[in-house]
Amino acid sequence: MTLPALPLDGIRVIDFSRVLAGPLCSALLGDLGAEVIKIEPPTGDDYRAIGPFSGGESGLFHAMNRNKQSVVIDLKRDEGRALAQALCAQADVVVENFRPGVAERLGIGYAELSARHPALVYASVSGFGQTGPESHRPAYDIILQAMCGLMDVTGSPDGAPTLVGDSISDAVSGLFASWGVLAALLARERTGKGTHVDVAMFDATLGLTAGMVARYATSGVAPRRVGNRHASSAPFGAYRAKDGYFVVAVLNNRLFERFAHAISHPELIDDARFADDAMRSENEAALRACIESWAELHSVAEVNARLSDVGIPVAPIQNISEALESEQARERGLLIETRSADGGTLRLPRQPVHFSAWPGTRTTRAPGLGEHTQQVLEKYLDLDTERVAALRESGVLGHEHADAAGARSEMIRNANNA
Questions:
Q1: What is the Cα–Cα distance from 397 to 71, expressed in whole angstroms?
Q2: Which fold has domain 12-209+330-417?
Q3: Residue 6 DSSP symbol
Q4: Residues 229-279: pLDDT tens digits?
Q5: What are phi and psi of 97, to 5 degrees?
Q6: CATH T-level fold of 236-321
Q7: Calpha distance 56→204 (Å, rounded)
Q8: Which residues are part of the catalytic machinery?
Q9: ∠ CA 224-226-231 to the nearest 5 degrees?
Q10: Which InterPro entries match (predicted)?
């Protein structure tokens, strides 16, 4: 039986991005069937040298560059820029995450490419966007978490501002960029015209904190750190049991009554301090003491079973291993086993959206550095073997794939010894 085409089959993406936000954007497009051609410098994407490693390959690079082909082109050379421009002229989408102005200097900026190819959708992912007084600044996830208020509201009220435990600004920027590309492609179907999709990590991170932004926009007061509890509801947070912690979420009086009976404290229902959500939040410390006096007599598993049985939203606090190895994650296929370059297997994250029209999406390994240079140039630019060999000899295409693998191993050794 022939499987139906994935939703982005026939869409070609040229990906100049590196590290995380941009590569995640194009990986998500590749998951849905787009052909993604990753253009790398001769030294490769920096993420190739960032651990952890398996079989000499970076797990982070594999995750962010699944479903792609790798072409090495030195964009600092005139011939390299000409090759890149020619590939972009045949593409539907270009993704880059240089600092503003760099793509223009390399001859692959939106204005130059769209003048030749008006239907091109061009996505730029940068720290602060293409405009504004901060647009020139370099940015890493920690910079954006600090500047967007995320660190300030994370952590204990009497402790230091705290990083969220993963590169959340990078990830949400890649997600918003893929969303912007899809919207632009849909609009192009109606108008025939492409557009420039400008994604700032600063904007995306503030967009992620939708509740915090809404509270400030309404009250004019910046939210404060409240630790492992909700800023305006109770009981809604993390609580201590006999052998660890659990979380519970109670947002209305009906659930609170059920909760009070479940923890053997029905007197809480008629206590004026806990009459509604606002009062419970105001008196959260007293409510917490009562909850934990019950919970400390029970294990997390017992608490979870007791509250779940009566319909209270409750959960144990799991680590990432427990989450990904859970029966729920296995049923949803969140990690996929795929074949590695050496014939073994590796596990890669699967994009999380399920479609009834397609039995699955695509998840294949990331490419070796320059692995597809020759076949892409021959297929799309009609260059013959001799011309590709001459370009390689001149240094425009970097080293042979085997040499590049050795160079990558040297990068990894240097990174490990740094």
A1: 8
A2: Rossmann fold (3.40.50)
A3: P
A4: 998 899 999 999 999 999 999 999 999 999 999 999 999 999 999 999 999
A5: -135, 40
A6: formyl-coa transferase, domain 3 (3.30.1540)
A7: 33
A8: 230
A9: 80
A10: CoA-transferase_III_domain, CoA-Trfase_fam_III, CoA-Trfase_III_dom3_sf, CoA-Trfase_III_dom_1_sf
